[in-house]
UniProtKB/TrEMBL annotation:
Protein's recorded name: Phytocyanin domain-containing protein
The keyword Signal is annotated on this UniProt entry: yes
GO cellular component terms, semicolon-separated: plasma membrane
InterPro entries, A to Z: Cupredoxin, Phytocyanin-like, Phytocyanin_dom
Organism of origin: Vitis rotundifolia (Muscadine grape)
Lineage: Eukaryota, Viridiplantae, Streptophyta, Embryophyta, Tracheophyta
Amino acid sequence: MVNVTIIAILIAIAASATPAASYTNHTVGGDAGWFFNTTTNTSIIDYSKWAANQTFSLGDFLIFKTNTNQTVVQTYNETTYKSCNTDDASDDDTFHYDAGSNVFGEAWTIAVALTIEGPNYYLSDADDGVQCQSGLSFAIDVKHGQGLPPSLNQPPPPPYIEPPSADSPPSPTVAVAGGQPSGNGDSRNAANMRAVFGVLLLLLV
Ligand SMILES: *[C@@H]1O[C@H](CO)[C@@H](O)[C@H](O)[C@H]1NC(C)=O
Ligand SMILES: *[C@@H]1O[C@H](CO)[C@@H](O)[C@H](O)[C@H]1NC(C)=O
Ligand SMILES: *[C@@H]1O[C@H](CO)[C@@H](O)[C@H](O)[C@H]1NC(C)=O
Ligand SMILES: *[C@@H]1O[C@H](CO)[C@@H](O)[C@H](O)[C@H]1NC(C)=O
Ligand SMILES: *[C@@H]1O[C@H](CO)[C@@H](O)[C@H](O)[C@H]1NC(C)=O
Ligand SMILES: *[C@@H]1O[C@H](CO)[C@@H](O)[C@H](O)[C@H]1NC(C)=O
């Protein structure tokens, strides 16, 4: 039993020595933020240059600090990105973020999680695509890094099932057989514990 205790302690030490996962929040454009200058008809900085000087990994966030004169569109479709036109874009590969406001010039910030490895594209489709055509867009390559954190690595929701329409016949009631047998849980847990100790003891041999 002493040896089992030592092994358990070693396992605990190894687990706690694993470095804590760390992810990066990239503020898009740095201090400049995500803006278009309508006087000069250009983005206020070169966003492709900004992006080229960063390493992006799964689980990182892009933080867009902007106002409601710009939009944030994320796409995985290079055609959509290059055309600056989201009219024909599919809902599967293009996501629109907006501040939920129809007032011009209101400050807003949006955090976009990087959850898909490989090319990701960002653009503003405001001013009928002129902002995007004139520099308010960039492409990044998302590396695997340490992978997604559990908070972003959710399984997809179950597929949608059409509810029965009002005029379809009611489905037969299915009787659920048996209840949860009581008193079984404890003995099962005890069996699991015995199995764990059995494996540990086998490792010792
Ligand atoms: C990064 O941004 C996300 C989303 O806003 C936030 O939950 C997280 O705390 C931020 N992390 C750091 C280190 O600022
Ligand atoms: C837009 O550019 C003009 C001309 O360079 C400058 O005067 C103005 O401050 C800029 N506006 C913004 C919001 O950056
Ligand atoms: C701004 O730039 C776009 C794309 O380069 C061009 O189509 C548009 O005519 C320009 N608008 C103004 C007001 O100069
Ligand atoms: C990235 O930015 C840092 C700090 O501004 C600078 O020192 C470095 O040269 C830049 N690297 C690239 C590849 O542009
Ligand atoms: C990209 O989007 C265009 C429409 O904008 C569509 O025709 C094309 O099939 C899409 N490409 C991929 C790889 O989904
Ligand atoms: C936002 O756009 C509106 C309409 O084009 C313009 O009047 C206003 O000056 C812009 N505000 C900012 C902060 O860029």
